[in-house]
Amino acid sequence: MTENESLRIVEPATADHTAAEWLLNSLPDQARRRARMDWRQHGAVFLPLGERFSAVRLPDTIVSAFTGGQWDPQGQAEWLAEALEGGPVIAEPRYHRWYALVPASVPTTWRDAVTDWRNQDVEVLGRGFHLGVPPLTATAYVSADRSFWASPMSSAGVLCAPLTVARVIAAGIHAMGEGECL
User: Can you give the three-state secondary structure of 151-176, one letter per residue?
Assistant: First the structure.
């Protein structure tokens, strides 16, 4: 094995670890150990939103407007990863929802847009909300009971660009209104 090959093997684990620690730092010190255990035992940990990051909940209807109109977790995950330029997205198969992780300030800065999108079941979640976050190793659909990273965090603190998320929402609403799949 060459030196470059060994770096490729080590790099993702290090990136995953750094991103995982960044996520867990949204919890008080004493809760982090328990959270690591919850990831191993339960496949998710509830993290508070609004301080390090917030989340935009996208219903399947918006995503399906682009991907054929049917729930297809793996295909839709690939589409979202590309559409959101690799920004982190969590899939919640049980409720057919997607959560784009965005900067913590988005609930405040998007106040007017959120009101318009609420009738489409888009919700911007910040302070006062918690999000079930799977371990960064959960990157594929396994079952309807397991959340997974449709697009994993590439690095600590790297989030979806709010403008890109807004464009996906607007285009999805537009496509639904026209009754067509793009």
Answer: ECCCCCCCCCCHHHHHHHHHHHHHHH
Query: How far is residue 4's CA from residue 159's CA, in Å, rounded to a whole number?
Result: 28
Cβ-based neighbour number of residue 90 at 10 Å: 25
In the chain, the number of structural domains is 1
Alpha helix segments (H runs only) across the chain: 3-24, 29-42, 60-67, 73-83, 106-109, 111-117, 162-178
Q: What tokens appear for 15 in the block? A: 């990136």
Residue (of 177, 25, 169) closest to 89 by Cα position: 169
pTM for this model (two decimals): 0.87
In order of 17, 18, 81, 92, 147, the CA distances from 57 in angstroms are 25, 25, 15, 10, 14
Which residue segment(s) compose the domain that 172 sits in? 3-178
> Which residues are within 8 A (CB) of 115 and not within 5 positions of it... i.e. 6 or more apart?
none
pLDDT in tens, 67-78: 777 788 888 999
